[in-house]
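During the no-cost extension, the postdoctoral fellow (Dr. R.K.) reprocessed legacy sequence entries with the updated structure-token encoder. One reprocessed record is reproduced below for audit purposes.
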Amino acid sequence: MLSFAISCPIVGPNSGGAIMNGVSTVKAIFEELRKEIPERYQPGDLLPNERLLAERFGVSRNTIREVIIFLEAYGLVEKTQRGPRASKPDIEAMFRILDQCFDRSVKTCREVLQFRRIIEIGVLPEVVRHITDAEIDGLNRLAEDMEHQLTVREAAEVDFRFHAAIVAASRNSMLQKMYQAMSQPMIYYMEIGKSNAVIGPTTVDYHRQIIAALRERSVEKAVEASNAHFHFSESVFNQEAQPSATPKP
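Re-encoded structure tokens follow.
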């Protein structure tokens, strides 16, 4: 995870001589530019180069380079040979940073399942309205691929692509970005269930029930099939999350 690690006061030519005490130099400059860029620059506009920024804030060019790394990570600028350039606002970059805040606790995994259920059930009316036969065929191929993956991780990644494709079929770009940004905690959750090889065929059957409901263009059946799938997924997770019994001496 990105973090601001350098700490020292700075005095910049445009800071009115005020010393920024108790705040990381890099973070202080980042915060100023983070507010300034959307206000003063249009996407594609070049920012002042490293030398000019270093002179403005009274710091070294290495410090400015660190600031630009953070600005780039937050989706505010992109590097070019001519210097940093303002980027088009990208909400996905914000969600990628948010993803780093999630731990891998049982509580978080349950919240991930709740997030999935709210999103995937909620979009089904729009999915049924917009999904094409070609997209349904793609879902069927993913369900088949799920059965033939060699590792738990690979199976979980295919499972995620299946559900992400359903969300994408809603044609809601904001939800697509949110869902994609949550990919790593979701895949981690899916891995837990897939670590039990016995339930693999049953899991695929639930996916096929969702596909069948979408082929019928039935919102009611799609909701029913998805709820059944999530109920099964939750029961498997609860079973796998139980601590192993310790044998008595």
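Strands lie at 77-80, 83-86. The radius of gyration is 24 Å. The remaining legacy entries will be reprocessed before the final report is submitted.
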